[in-house]
Predict the structure of Acyl-CoA thioesterase.
Amino acid sequence: MSRSDASSTSLHPLDEALALVPQADGPAADGALRFDGAAHPAYANMVGPFGGVSAAQMLQAVLLHPQRLGDPIAFTVNFAAAVADAPFHIWAQPARTNRSTQHWTLRMTQADAQGAEHTVLTATAVTAVRRSTWSVNDTPMPEVAAPDEVARAEVRGWVRWIERYNMRPLVGPMPTEWDGSETPSLTRMWVRDEPPRPLDFASLAAFSDVFFPRVWRRRAVQTPIGTVSMTAYFHVDAATLAAVGDGFLLGQAAGQVFANGFFDQTGQLWSQTGELLVTTQQIVYYKE
């Protein structure tokens, strides 16, 4: 399969990026299974690939594993080193399987110039079989203008991965002047895949990282940054995601503390009908 560009194939570029190949002889006795994949040029970032797609590739290894139980409910990925624009291996292993939950450990490795494998990402995931219970959403979707009433952000000239998302900012857009001015860190926007693509857990993991760094919003200085760890909590099952289809999601993110080289940010993503799909948190390095 070609990975050259979205225009060279009818397959969505995200599906190309998620096309992991499992080890031919299947899982080992302990359940560990290796998947082979590669960074996709359509999701290139300033250094290596967009972190959200790397996270999606890690979660995809769980979703493709033949021993998976249920749907993802929690997922944490740790960025131990910069992912290179090169092939990689993902090792996915069910660490423990209970009646309703399953706990996973994952790592991504890449070869250096001498051929030695090094860990670049680690991750944990929890999948579960959801039961019908009393349920309530205490984080309702804000009242905002509809997507077709909001202009799309001009993103060309930045990094390539941004072109893979249709972003329509409502509050707190990317700064247009890097003058050091300080503003609230809140961003609110409509967003969907470009071209549109039906939502699934892997793409929802990528959406969890779609917000530009909160430190750039809080203070308009292009300081170098890098996500250290990102967690996503999924609040819906696969059937609910399928019902969302390829519509816009309302995303919201804000920082909480910026101190001594690290900041955190929290985020939420709702469907257009107001269903809270995922909440996410990050801890991010920044340089002065």
In short: The domain at 6-128 is CATH 2.40.160.210 (Porin). The radius of gyration is 19 Å. The chain has a mean pLDDT of 94. The chain has two domains: 6-128, 147-286.
